[in-house]
Amino acid sequence: MSLGMEILISALLVIGGCFGLIGSFGLLKLRGAMQRLHAPTKATTVGVGASLIGAALATYAATGVANWQGVLVAAFLFLTAPLSGLMLAKAHRHLDRTAVPPTGTGAPWAGERPSKTEP
Known about the structure:
Blueprint: H1 3-29, H2 33-63, H3 68-95
């Protein structure tokens, strides 16, 4: 294995670990449900994806055979984690309308019915 490949694999694994740690810390320490949802869907997705791609490269460098399972899992994770976070956020918004701040323009949020006080 070449030195450049070892540096690339090491960098991907370290970056993946750092993003995973930051996402986990954010999940524990952030206050609101929407803030806690943001940390794992963004930071941990990048962390696990970088680790999987690094592991796939390490397998390829050691054996010469492509490890497509790791790459496919990373691609599936990159597609599904943001979408599941979006669906959880939409469900939270529809269940708890008091958590949505005012728009600041006088107009309601998209999908909201106007209040009954309006003519």
